[in-house]
Amino acid sequence: MITRRTCRIAAAASATLPRFAIAQGMPELQTMRSTSKSWLWMAEDYGREGGFFERAGVKVVSNASNRGTNIAALAGNAGADIVLGDPGELINAVAQDFPARAFMHTVEKYASHVVVRKEILDKAGVTEASPVPAKLAVLKGLRMGTTGPGAAPDSLLRWLAVKGGFDPNKDMQLVPVQGGGPGMIAGLQQKVIDGFCLSSPTSDIAVVKADCAYLFNNATNPPPELKEYCYITASASLRGLRDKREALIRYTLGIKATLKSIETDMAKFQQFARTYLELDPSIADQAVAANSKIYATDPVITPALYASVVDFMNIALTSQNQPKLPAGLTLDKIYDGSILAEAAKRPS
Predict the structure, then answer these.
(1) So what's the pLDDT on residue 14?
(2) Measured between alpha carbons, how far is residue 185 from residues 57, 149, 199, 209, 278 in Å?
(3) 2-109+228-344 and 113-225 share one fold
(4) How do the residues of the chain divide into helix, strand and coil, expressed in percent and rounded to 5?
């Protein structure tokens, strides 16, 4: 059942957030993500609703901010214990001495997708199956919806523009859209944007109900550089990693059990996803087929995965006339692998 709670975040106005409640009588962790329901958060949602966290001995309360960036929620005593989101936001924060670390990842595809009005693609003679250079060229001159500067959709569109050889600041209009998925669909209907970047099921809804088509479905047909990518991480403050270590280890055990269940019993997970995400029958088959295999089988953040994130971020930062990440910002500066290591010692 979804209720609402207020979460005060450092340097941000307090916001009313959806809340998902489960079993009582065990340590509780508050988590934060950008939107209430998306394939991006399903490792946590399946873990909570499927009883994996309960069996691991931790209560998880999931909150949605309806903002593109949320790492500030880890500051102070009144915010979240865990933030789920793009590691780029964490890396930028740590580069400015923000006291937080990622402790695992759950999604291994850059599973925010790019959809564009079908009439635009038809006029250009481009489909999702077209060569990448042709698809990139379509973006030039378009008004593309994002969840705001610094968020993953904004970074992806910038990266695609640079790969296409044009300037996202001059040759494409990036339009911040509030309200998550419904806001994007409304923007299309009001013709203030020509397309957007966001995860499923919103991208599927745009295809079926808002006369759009996929330009990049990054779950099934991403640019080659994004075929394997550390996209959704779980992060905690340094204080939380110290003071709530046991609860975080239990959370990690719950996520590991969830990821294992997704891998070994895909049909059960897919059925859960259809119901939990309230997928419209007209988009359900497409959404399930594309997005049910985006999850990591191993939640460890490897040096290779980190290197690909840094390469991606440096392109996005340069497009904003910002300096590249400091060379000394190595994996150990943003990732604490000890939580996963301790979880691995315990019975699964």
Answers:
(1) 29
(2) 39, 19, 13, 9, 17
(3) yes
(4) 45, 20, 35
**In Å, how far are 128, 141, 170, 202 from 120, measured between CA atoms?**
13, 11, 20, 19
Contact between residue 139 and residue 107 where contact means Cβ atoms under 8 Å apart: no
* Angle (nearest 5°) at CA 28 between 337 and 267: 70
What class has domain 2-109+228-344? alpha beta
Domain 113-225: assigned CATH number? 3.40.190.10
Residue 68 has pLDDT above 70, yes or no: yes
pLDDT band at 295 (very low <50, low <70, confident <90, very high): very high
Strand 212-216 relative to strand 59-64: parallel, antiparallel, unpaired?
unpaired
pLDDT digits (tens, 9 = 90+) for 194-231: 999 999 999 999 999 999 999 999 999 999 999 999 99
Contact of 35 with 68, CB cutoff 8 Å: no
Q: Is the model's pLDDT at 117 over the cut of 90?
A: yes
Phi, psi of 61 (to 5 degrees): -110, 115
- Residues 78, 176, 215: CA angle, nearest 5 degrees: 120
Domain ranges of the chain: 2-109+228-344, 113-225
Dist. CA 72–CA 235, nearest whole Å: 11
* Residue 24: Cβ within 10 Å count: 7
Q: Which amino acid is at 161?
A: A
Q: For all residues of the chain together, what is the average pLDDT? A: 91
